[in-house]
Amino acid sequence: MNSENEIIFLRTYKDFIFYFNMLERNIGYCLSCCLKSYGNKNSDKWLVTSFDSKVKRILKLAKRMGVDEKFCTWNSDIEECRHLRNIIVHGNWEWHEFSDKPIRFHAPEIENGKGEFTNDEFKSKLNFLKIASETFAKIRTQLETACQKAQPKHAR
């Protein structure tokens, strides 16, 4: 039988993966939308490329459109989220009920891939991801607007 605290951990774990995947899809949709503005016929390929490729492309596009300042701060936040996502997906997780920090993880192939959390510390990582996702939702509109304004005349 799982304790109430372990169930909270498992829900937070699940929610982190859910919100990260949602953010990744939104980045792909943003790229697809921006590149369609330029008449790029392969713009939908960004829906299925790797997360790292999407982030690199979105940063390159933001720089080209002159809105890269806000994306630089977001990028440092998203890198932290990506690192934890890799640990979540590739690591081994254990629950130690009677420990001060009952959540333990070990992902030997990932740098800084070993540690422990309290439930509150782990939930704060989820909140950090939610904030990064909300920030992207705000700044992506600036990028999409800039791309629409800069689109070639024949595509308008």
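(the above was protein one; protein two follows)
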Amino acid sequence: MTASVAIQVLPETNDTDELIRIVDEVIAYIASTGYNYYVGPFETTIEGDSYDELMEIVKNCQKVAIEAGCPSVSAYVKICYKPEGGVLTIDKKVSKHHK
């Protein structure tokens, strides 16, 4: 594993149901990419061996939110990148906490 990215997408809306609908569309997009991902309460983590493809997913998450109907979107992103490999996997980080 060479890269792990966590993204929190925050659509501009005051309607909780609308916020959830838009975030669900972003998560559905992430699921469609085929990459391993984990949905947490504040962010979704995606991991893979192509840094460039993960960055493209990050970019597209914001576009998906806009296409879903919000006028603007903010995103908070965390990136761990090791070109030689060895990034801790999602499973290694959280599996012991989810029995």
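Reviewer note on protein two: The radius of gyration is 14 Å.
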